[in-house]
Amino acid sequence: MLYEFCRLFILFIVYSFIGYVSELIYCSIQFKKIVLNRGFFIGPYLPIYGVCCIMMTFFLEKYNNDLVALFIMSIVLCSITEFVTSYILEKIYKVRWWDYSNMKFNFEGRICLLNSCLFGVGGVALIHFINPTVYPILDMLPKTLLIIIGLILVVIFLTDLSISVKTLHEIKIQSDEYSDHDATEEIKFLVRKNISKGSFLITRLLNAFPSIGGKNKMKLISLKKFTNEIRKKIKQNSKAKNKIFNKDKK
User: Fold this and answer.
1) 174 close to 223: Cβ distance less than 8 angstroms
2) Residue 46 carries which DSSP code?
3) pTM for the whole structure
4) How many domains, in total, are found in the chain?
């Protein structure tokens, strides 16, 4: 049971990593510049691709000999997953993290025909090329080693997940209450508490989702500027305290 779980989780991470690399390539071409990160997570993986690939592996293997059916079903399965994910994230965080409104044949800006077709191609590639390549490699690993690798990846992923969700939650709180270049004491406390981590992740989110909608993006940019201001004040206060301490010491 543990072996099967670890094997499945390793596959999930592999698929998520492949999706991450694919997004970097796709977005670099789309935005005509090198994009170095995507997604909410710190690590180089996009779980939505891992989830889609796991589902396609479980539910679409039966279409292995029918490329047309496999292509269409991959489109349906992944498009529904992307739409639901976009809807849930927007409801929770009040931010549209990706928007295909400028793409032809889109539905509510959450999914579009081009991306859906790419999912279809990905489904065919997964069943016919990726799985037949990855499975033998995993089967070559000793069971104990595979379990150890799987558990290490679980710990890393859960740690990343907890940090990312916490940061997103704080961004939601701060962006909802932050306006007119002012902030509440609660925001100041949160920023001070997570200054090193939060500033990095806010910057990363802005870089990872360049298509965030207008007002939402301005909120995050304002928050980023605010964290930088607080960071400078903390450093100045720290230097001032050190000077006073050194004078008293002399």
Assistant:
1) yes
2) -
3) 0.70
4) 2
What sections of 142-194 are H helices per DSSP?
143-177, 185-193
Based on the domain organization, do 35 and 123 belong to the same domain?
yes
d(CA 76, CA 159): 32
CA distance 189 to 61: 51
- How many residues belong to the chain? 250
Map residue 104 onto helix, strand or coil. coil
Phi, psi of 90, rounded to the nearest 5 degrees: -70, -40
Residue 136 near residue 5, CB atoms below 8 Å:
no
In order along the chain (250 residues), what is the average pLDDT of each group of 10 residues? 93 94 86 76 87 94 92 96 89 74 88 93 94 93 94 93 76 49 38 47 58 51 58 60 54
d(CA 28, CA 129) in angstroms, rounded, equals 25
243 domain residue, yes or no = no
Tell me the two tokens of residue 177.
Answer: 């209450």
